[in-house]
Automatic annotation (TrEMBL):
SUPFAM superfamilies linked to this entry: Terpenoid synthases (SSF48576)
PROSITE patterns the UniProt entry points to: SQUALEN_PHYTOEN_SYN_2
GO biological process, one term: carotenoid biosynthetic process
Protein name as annotated: 15-cis-phytoene synthase
Single Gene Ontology MF annotation: geranylgeranyl diphosphate synthase activity
InterPro entries: Isoprenoid_synthase_dom_sf, Squ/phyt_synthse, Squalene/phytoene_synthase_CS, Trans_IPPS_bact-type, Trans_IPPS_HH
CDD domains assigned: Trans_IPPS_HH
Catalytic activity entry: 2 (2E,6E,10E)-geranylgeranyl diphosphate = 15-cis-phytoene + 2 diphosphate
Keywords associated with the record: Carotenoid biosynthesis, Transferase
Origin species: Compsopogon caeruleus
EC number: 2.5.1.32
Amino acid sequence: WDHRVRFRRQQQRVLDVAYRECERITAIYSKTFYMGSSFLEMSKRKAVRAIYVWCRRTDDLVDGPRAVQNAASLRAKLDDWQVRLRETFAGRPRDALDLTLSEVCKQYNRMDITPFEDMIQGMFMDTEKTRYQTFDELYLYCYRVASTVGLMTLPIMGTFDSSQEAYERAKEPAIALGIALQLTNILRDVGEDRMRGRIYLPLDDLERFGYSEQDLMKSVIDHRYRNLIKFQVERARQYFRKAEEGIYLLSEDSRLPVRTSLDMYRGILDVLEKNEYDNFHKRAYLTKLQKLALVPISYLRCQDSPFLLFLASLLKGFV
């Protein structure tokens, strides 16, 4: 009995240190996610940051400083990562960070391995594709690398009631938010991706606006390019609007973190517009002060009150 007690205490100490490491990693690599998750109560906060770290480690297999460049070796690494994921879900974590995810799976019974495996498939896409012909192709990529995060965290966020019906209804807006966030990332990073030989903007859309791959590789900004990016911005905003409709489906204590992340990312599109759609030479981002100024507006938007929503719209004019 004493051995078991000591083991549990030792495991808890390891877990506490690992959760603190998840907090540190999240703070470094995603300030928006870190700020948004700060509004969650402690157990939910630790859980979503554990998931963020798993996602970060998954992405690092492809894009990180230690990423393997050889396609066959990278595929082998991703295959092993999938085996490791299944072991973690089965309660056999390989390291302390895996242990945090394993604990999250025990705490939240709606945790599903499918979106995690779908994200790994998204990483496979990143190793195999540098162009997307249609928006449908890009949508699948965005779903796998971003919408999956919403589905991973939905069991933690919870819904306004505990019914399966409410949970299922919340999935579509969660998927829409992921699409919106990833489309925003793509629009923000066109210049950086170009330097890596990647074009995420659908080639069909380039053709529609009379703009070529060669133009993009040369950073040509003219009326064709501005119209192209304006079209992409409006598409992203449509998905943000779909996501907004689902915020009230979430449990009350989870609405502000999601709303804050949504508003901050949508603000990047506003900056891109102010930059006259120049995402080759100017990076669209919100300053820390701008992010902080959005928090009370996001809070008001979470309230079920026409007056407070009106007040939020007034305040937005000053941010």
